[in-house]
């Protein structure tokens, strides 16, 4: 099965329902499927063998991921915070590809590699304006690689972690409640596009026909404002953002965050003290640490507010790769 089937089903069931919000623009699920099919046409015409993005999380990343899935080529979100020389080495592994993002930077680091380079705005516009050549066109069945995420290495050639379509769909079916929910609601993603937990949360939200809000420029003020105005029920954040959220709330910032049912933290390990303080500040919110020492396939889940001592004990005595921990009230 292809991960794009999640979007096709959402568009068939709820075509007029808002599926994505980014920078005060919104797209219905029917619009998202049209854009994915437009991206597919661009990929097919270019004969690219991969689609890479060097940018913050935005609508282009969503169009690219599902378009690449339909075309049967890997979607490769890169960490735009890395030095140019690292990104150059990673892009060399993907030739020929469509590279989306800051056009000047992408041209500087990969202009001689044979890629097609498009700005975020140009790719998004072309994807939305391109009409599929044939409504009956057959798309890739999804038997190959869906996502490639490069791992940071201090020496040697870049190494990518590969996620196949079937594996991602299995992850969606088994995701913790703070990443996946079949309840109506709104998901806020304040993570970069190369974050594996962010990709999983996006797929889970599409499966549940939820509204997904992307926060490209991650600030606490913008995060608080979106949670309040959009009535966010589930949020995915990076640990530094969670720490700043905790600090501002402890300083007396008055915010209505009553709609938040779950917060997941991705990208790095959460300091235990931050988790303790967050649990106290959000007494009715479930928390998940969607990160493990062995990589994005590891997940630690801490759901019970009255079981923090058990969380501490299991974290303190863990050896080697962090195990999955699922703690619930007794």
From TrEMBL:
The Swiss-Prot or TrEMBL record annotates one GO molecular function as: CoA-ligase activity
Write one Pfam family the protein is assigned to.
Answer: AMP-binding
Which SUPFAM superfamilies does the annotation name? Acetyl-CoA synthetase-like (SSF56801)
List the residue ranges forming a coiled coil, or say none.
Answer: none
The organism's place on the tree of life at top rank: Bacteria
Which parts of the sequence belong to the AMP-dependent synthetase/ligase domain?
7-292
* The name this protein goes by in its record: AMP-binding enzyme
């Amino acid at each position: 099965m292809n991960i794009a089937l999640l979007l096709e089903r959402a568009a068939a069931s709820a075509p007029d329902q808002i599926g994505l919000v980014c920078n005060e623009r919104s797209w219905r699920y029917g619009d998202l499927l049209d854009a994915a099919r437009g991206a597919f046409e661009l990929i097919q015409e270019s004969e690219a063998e991969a689609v890479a993005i060097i940018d913050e999380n935005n609508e282009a990343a969503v169009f690219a991921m599902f378009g690449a899935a339909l075309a049967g080529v890997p979607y490769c979100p890169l960490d735009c915070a890395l030095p140019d020389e690292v990104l150059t080495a990673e892009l060399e592994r993907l030739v020929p590809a469509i590279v989306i993002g800051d056009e000047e930077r992408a041209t500087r680091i990969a202009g001689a590699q044979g890629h097609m380079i498009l700005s975020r705005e140009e790719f998004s516009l072309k994807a939305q304006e391109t009409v599929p050549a044939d409504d009956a066109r057959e798309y890739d069945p999804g038997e190959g690689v869906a996502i490639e995420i490069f791992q940071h290495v201090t020496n040697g050639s870049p190494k990518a972690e590969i996620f196949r379509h079937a594996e991602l769909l299995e992850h969606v079916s088994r995701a913790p409640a703070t990443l996946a929910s079949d309840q109506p609601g709104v998901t806020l993603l304040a993570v970069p596009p190369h974050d594996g937990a962010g990709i999983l949360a996006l797929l889970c939200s599409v499966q549940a026909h939820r509204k997904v809000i992307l926060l490209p420029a991650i600030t606490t003020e913008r995060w608080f404002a979106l949670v309040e105005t959009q009535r966010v029920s589930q949020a995915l954040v990076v640990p530094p953002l969670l720490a700043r959220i905790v600090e501002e709330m402890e300083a007396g910032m008055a915010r209505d965050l009553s709609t938040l049912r779950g917060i997941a933290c991705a990208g790095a390990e959460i300091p235990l003290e931050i988790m303790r303080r967050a649990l106290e500040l959000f007494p009715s919110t479930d928390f998940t640490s969607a990160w493990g020492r062995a990589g994005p396939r590891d997940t630690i889940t801490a759901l019970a507010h009255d079981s923090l001592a058990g969380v501490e004990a299991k974290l303190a005595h863990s050896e080697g790769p962090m195990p999955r921990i699922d703690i619930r009230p007794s």
